[in-house]
Amino acid sequence: MATASIIRGLHQKFRPSARCKGNTAKPVTKRTKGTHRNGFLTHSFKPFQSVASADWNAAEKEFFVSLNNLCQFHGWAVPDVSGLYFPQNVKQAMQMLKAHEKVGLNILLLQDENHAACLTTAKTFDTSYRLYYIPVRPLYLMQGDPQAKSLHELTAVIFAYLYQVCGVPYFTEPGYMDNEYDTIQNWIDEESDEDEREFRVQQKKDLKLKQSAGEQLLTIIQQPYSLKNLAECLKRFVVADGDLLGKSFKETATEIYKLAYDYPHRKIKDSMHYEFNEDADNDQIYWENYVSFYWSGNDSLQETLYDMVNNEFQEMGYQEEPMAFQWFDNPQESTRYDFDFEARLFALFNQLTKLLNDYDDEEFN
Question: Quick check: 330 and 38 in contact, CB under 8 A?
Fold first, then answer.
């Protein structure tokens, strides 16, 4: 995927977020300055007039070539800016193109190592406003089950792929999920209702186990990952007759292997572009807020955690979601936005989480 930067900030919010109704809660922790960069966009952006260019004539020519290609593809009249000089002609043309923007079609002027000033259209992948939280306690439970050795090995290497390659955040490391659990800890410590004493005791036990076991499991998923190792673990995982959970797990693991094979280095953040939101300085839902490892979906902390997250997200006005671009440096014959990785990954998040929760529920209760 090409490295793109904004030349002209003539964009709009891609879509507001919509979450379950809830009461107020502490706001979503903002990203630190060092963590929001996604490797795809690595510097501050300047207005078009300030973009460094070795050849302004070439940049102007490239823009109008892409303008003609864009308008021809969509059947639009080419904006007439013949009475203006560069860069005012580009600015005016961009303003006139805004009339064609609509939901699902955003027009951007971008540059990368191969383009000085090229028009593109952008599309956002719909994550369905779900929380893609992957429970880790099932991996902990598998450690104590001699019959789950091969399942434990396979799950561990899948987690390693998601953590090391895809970049899924881990709940004991500094970040959003770690902050949420810290807040729950503070609430429990401050609670004085005697009627809830027994439940608070259980929550404190779960928090303690979450921290100690979580740190121990992190050392496991930090072990060097390789596609070969994933293939070997998948081969060793033999499903017994009648084991419906094992069968479903192997099917999901096989699809994860195929994804890892097709995209051996692809990270979630590669297609995330919060910079295209004109209100980026305001509170918003970053992808790390709704994609993460967490402790468990079946413990005494789960309901509190999800209530907190939903209440916080209800107050946010923008959600960062994957984006894809179609460049118009050449004439285009069809609409092309590649979300193959995202569509497969987010679907597999759902499948994997369901299976892990099923195992957690069976083993723990």
Answer: no
